[in-house]
Amino acid sequence: MKTVAAYLVPSLAACTLGAIIAAGPARAEQIVVSNYGVAANGMPFAVAEAKGYFKEEGANVTGILSSAGGGTTLRNMLAGDAPYGEINPNAVISAIEQGADIKIVSDNVLTVAEFIWAVKPDSPIKTVKDLKGRKFGYTNPRSTSQALATLVLQSAGLNTSDAELVKTGGFGEGIAALDIGLVDITPIPEPLWSKFQSKYRPIAKATDLLPPMANVVGVVSVAQAGAKADFIRAVIRARRRAVTFMEQHPDEAGDIIAKPYNLDPEVARSAVRNLISARTAGVEYWGSGQIHLDGLKRIIEVQKMVGAISGDVDAAKIVDNEFLPDDIKAIK
């Protein structure tokens, strides 16, 4: 999960035409998934592809395109005529505010349970309250990590002015900044946490401090939705089956994910186990696709805090449940 409007503002107006040329062709059977191969959100797509669920459900998915950040992913989706994309909601909403004709058709990751904020083992910081006067790392301005840093501080009665928020440029870069003392605490989300947890000490976990909030959503172009409706429905069903498989076979799922994510199998298994078992106020991390409107409203308010979203947004008007299976069509 990364930033948003900054990626979109310069080019969104020209996205449906000019960016097509710049970004190169993408076949209609490809889908785009933000940070696929890096961040935990896209792991079910790796399982769906490996298990053959796309084909079994009737979607001829010939590739999963990855992009760093929601804005880039959305541009790639629109420019390449990809029928379906998984993107963070703030990028989607910023695009809609700028006139993009897109809509949210599935709610894929329902919480930010992958976020853990950690310090070095010898740090004097023991609790969130100890962050007063400390350097708090986040990835980029207007990113989810910046917004969540604010919420973490607020959970202990602190304001953002009580700590120095330091841009690190990325999660891996944040770990490097922690190692050399440029920051005192930084977010280490899964699967990085499973990889490096022996080196750092957790101070805060999103599952303990933060409510459920939409993390990534499934998006389609309205212009394509009608012609690609069967494909979109099949992708959503295949991803849902993958999530069920991950719940029932977390270690096998981890072994599948290890290859496209370039992870040690044990690291991938640990990440899957941690996130499959994670519950935030009773809400799971990887959802079935069913839309949770309260979580979408929460992330809108969070992103407003850091200026990633401006103006009033009616969450109900930007979602469309027509592509969901009948048993999960009801909006929560």
Model description:
The chain has 332 residues and is of the alpha/beta class. The chain has helices at 5-8, 18-23, 43-50, 53-57, 70-79, 89-97, 144-155, 171-179, 192-196, 206-209, 222-225, 229-248, 250-261, 265-277, 293-305, and strands at 30-34, 63-67, 85-87, 102-109, 116-119, 135-138, 164-167, 186-187, 201-205, 216-221, 279-280, 283-284, 286-289. It has a six-stranded mixed β-sheet with strand order 2-1-3-10-4-13. A three-stranded antiparallel β-sheet has the order 8-5-9. Helix 3 packs across helix 12 (229-248), helix 3 crosses helix 13 (250-261) and helix 12 (229-248) packs across helix 13. The longest helix has 20 residues, at 229-248. The two termini are 23 Å apart. The model is unreliable at 1-27 (pLDDT under 50).
